[in-house]
Specification:
Helix content is about 40%, strand content about 20%. With about 375 residues, it is α/β, with parallel strands linked by helices.
């Protein structure tokens, strides 16, 4: 890069992405692809007030402390805003630090309702709140006649929150939920517990590939559980690595997807380019990445353009713009508002569907329920 290029002004956007283990690397790769394509498209259209956008990426590795430290670093580098993150617990740490520093944070993918402890003007979110999506998943289970639910779970604020949402929704309709500790039980012992409980569905509230893949294999190989529905509301089967690890055994496992039944022209165009970048079908996480940059660019334009000499004004302008942003995203028109029980500016709501991989063609997704 020559000196003239180095001195070219740009508006910096920080990006938090899980790119190494124990983070969900495949999700991080899709999120980053969407963010990078979004930056390219914004710059091809003239940037923000004629100033190009620059993405400054930091790997969170699913570590909340590492994410909080990255927000500090990015703030010191003069970013106008921070965006991204897939893991809810990590996004919560990033949101808290961004709020404390007065740095706008647009959460791309994390769904935990309590993204911040208190209501804040500095944080907005594209992904639906967990209570919204997981209640739709519970409705799907009820509609399928699956009221007796076992959940294989691991210690986590995110998994505990999901279990609570499912239990509240299902018990209100005469169902029940029993928790099984996936850390304490072998896959075979977990199968015994599911059979003893007489569960009609087993939900995987666990990490991928371990222990999700061994559990699926054990359940598929247990004749007692032939009629038990395996579900994964958090979306583990969304990514190609799931099918690569499980093949046909990974099909027929419903999960939440935040894509519409059919994409419009913009979504189709972005989806095609994401596929070329990724070398595989883009997940909804990749689309969330593209939408994130589009929203931030519009918020910055509403401030009158980026001003590297007054980053604080840019930041305040982005935060003030959340309730006024109106952009066409890949999955529909995006606007932010205040939702009951949610302390951040929220897109109410992205599309929510329950889908699975077709047993006859695991590369194809089937719609099981519209949220």
């Amino acid at each position: 890069m020559n000196t003239q290029q180095q001195q070219q002004p740009s508006v910096r956007l920080g990006a938090l992405v899980p790119l190494t283990r124990p983070g969900w690397v495949e999700a991080g790769r899709h999120l980053l692809a969407g963010l990078e394509l979004g930056v390219r498209d914004v710059n091809d259209a003239g940037g923000v007030g004629g100033v190009p956008v620059e993405l400054v990426v930091r790997d969170t590795a699913a570590d909340p402390e590492r994410a909080a430290a990255a927000v500090d670093e990015l703030a010191g580098l003069g970013v106008a805003a921070v965006a991204g993150e897939y893991h809810s617990v990590v996004a919560r740490a990033a949101a808290a630090r961004a709020d404390a520093l007065g740095v706008p944070f647009l959460c791309s993918s994390a769904v935990l309702d309590a993204l911040t402890e208190e209501s804040t003007e500095w944080v907005a979110r594209l992904a639906p709140a967990q209570s919204h999506g997981w209640s739709a998943y519970a409705d799907f289970l009820i509609g399928e006649g699956r009221g007796r639910i076992a959940v294989a779970t691991q210690p986590s604020v995110y998994w505990a929150s999901g279990t609570r949402i499912l239990r509240d929704h299902l018990t209100a309709h005469g169902g029940s939920v029993v928790e099984l500790d996936a850390n304490a039980l072998t896959p075979e012992a977990l199968c015994d517990a599911v059979a003893d409980h007489g569960a009609t569905a087993l939900l995987l509230l666990v990490g991928h590939p371990e222990p999700a893949v061994p559990i699926v294999r054990a359940v598929r190989g247990d004749r007692r559980l032939a009629d038990v529905l395996i579900g994964a509301p958090a979306g583990q089967p969304e990514f190609a690595g799931w099918t690569a690890a499980l093949g046909e055994d990974g099909a027929g496992i419903p999960f939440l997807s935040y894509l519409p039944e059919r994409l419009g022209p913009l979504g189709e165009r972005v989806g095609k380019e994401l596929r070329e970048r990724l070398g595989e079908a883009p997940s909804f996480v990749a689309f969330e990445g593209w939408d994130t940059v589009t929203v931030l660019a519009e918020a910055l334009r509403s401030t009158g353009g980026a001003d590297r000499a007054n980053v604080a004004a840019d930041r305040a302008g982005v935060a003030a713009a959340w309730p006024h942003v109106a952009v066409e995203g890949t999955r529909g028109p995006i606007r932010f508002s205040r939702a009951p029980g949610i302390g951040v500016w929220q897109w109410v709501w992205p599309p929510v569907r329950i889908v699975d991989r077709d047993p006859a063609d695991p590369g194809r997704l089937r719609i099981r329920h519209g949220g």
